[in-house]
Amino acid sequence: MNPAPIPAARPRERLAVPVLAFGGILMAVMQTVVVPLLPDLPRLTGASPAAVSWMVTATLLAGAVLTPVLGRAGDMYGKRRVLLIALALMTVGSVLCAVTSDIRVLIAARALQGAAAAVVPLSISILRDELPPHRTGSAVALMSSTVGVGAGLGLPLAALIVQYADWHVMFWATSALGALGLGLAWWAVRESPLRSPGRFDALGTLGLASGLVCLLLGVSQGGQWGWSSPAVVGLFAGAVVILCLWAWQQLRTERPLVDLRLAVGRRVGLPHVAALLTGFAFYANSLVTAQLVQAPAATGYGLGLSIVATGLCMLPSGLIMLLFSPVSARISTARGPRVTLAIGGVVLALGYAVRIADSTDLWVILVGAAVVSTGTTLAYSALPTLILRAVPADATASANGVNVLMRTIGQAVSSAAVAAVLVHHSTWVGGAEVPTLHGYQLAFAMAGTVALVAAAVALAVPSDGSGGRSVTGAPARTAMPKGA
């Protein structure tokens, strides 16, 4: 059956799209603001560099685990309700970071902030439920672009605060922004009447969480612990065993956390693969650009820029993602999201070709990064539209949660792969070990190749002509209005 008719929106509900987009920007800001702090945190907290690195790892692990879990909870208990919970956890985590210098509390607080990773898939599902069809495409594209916008804003904001104020001020600022986002979402976003009935799959949640923690912990710590170390090998072996058992359990559960039969089909499975590849390709740009422009001028290629200047270099890329989201929506409307995704992969690869051609002049670096951001915008905006066209209305939040999870895994693998390449191709300059220009170029080539593979995967996704539906047209299997 078709979703319930959409009532006329109250005036404040017309602000739902910008409010949800603000929440998505906040999510990305929370993930990036700690980056400029990392070199100084051992001194500021009295902790070891290895312990400080967990402020990034904890957010990654928590976000990866909570994104599909909160997505499924949103389908079952209300997307607005779960969205508010995610924003509240994010804000509480920021407040805890602002009031302590204890590394143990900071790591726990950063794990709480990882809940914000579910904001984007939940918001996309709310937009699908609440907006008329002619507005859904552009709104979903805008929501997808907030990931890059927030990252572009978060780095310079954090760098400015860290340079000119106490580092706790940064977290007080993000706490205020988080509270504002939570209040606006409570005020402007209404609850969708669609529900997916049934009992929450607690066993499936435990299995997925355990498997993902083993997998991502091994990926994120492999370079530090050693890829052949017993700990890392054990983590990867544990991930394989646990996830295989989890898949077996999911296939035999009436109401699984993740509908694997739906997820492995070409219409859903291939967009998930493309999300993983695109996440890999996109993240290499952020990782390498910051390191390259801060490298000492004595290397022959580095620009020796400050943290603040580096953050400002990332700002144009974020703004480009905001500006190009309507373009992505128009291409998807005219040609279909699979074409948009393929074009995005090709543009990503072209951006990395520019980076390989010249990575010594600042203006060329900025142009190359901007082209990569344009391709990322096209790809990220198309992915949720592909998912929305392929899944029932009662599974949109959980399906989009899995898609975001695949992007997160891609980013984690990208981080490990880029680090391995740069460590292998390094030299000593001024008493410090730094990557060579050839190492950076190899990282660009690797990311560009992955982007082209993502484009090929996109073209293999069945077109709408083979049974596709409109963004709002996928029927719900058992969705029912709240209170039915």
Topology (SSEs and partners):
Elements: H1 16-32, H2 41-45, H3 49-77, H4 79-98, H5 103-113, H6 119-130, H7 133-164, H8 167-188, E1 194-195, H9 202-225, H10 230-251, H11 260-263, H12 266-294, H13 307-335, H14 337-357, H15 362-390, H16 396-424, E2 426-429, E3 432-435, H17 437-460, E4 480-481
Helix pairs in contact: 1-6, 1-7, 1-8, 3-4, 3-5, 3-9, 3-16, 4-5, 4-6, 4-8, 6-7, 6-16, 7-13, 7-15, 9-10, 9-16, 12-13, 12-14, 12-15, 12-16, 12-17, 13-14, 13-15, 14-15, 14-17, 15-16, 16-17
Q: What key attributes describe this structure?
A:
two-stranded antiparallel ribbon; mainly alpha; 484 residues; globular; disordered C terminus
What would you say this structure looks like, in words?
The protein has 484 residues and is mainly α. Helices cover 74% and strands 2% of the residues. It contains 17 helices and four strands. The protein has helices spanning 16-32, 41-45, 49-77, 79-98, 103-113, 119-130, 133-164, 167-188, 202-225, 230-251, 260-263, 266-294, 307-335, 337-357, 362-390, 396-424, 437-460; strands at 194-195, 426-429, 432-435, 480-481. It has a two-stranded antiparallel ribbon. It is globular.
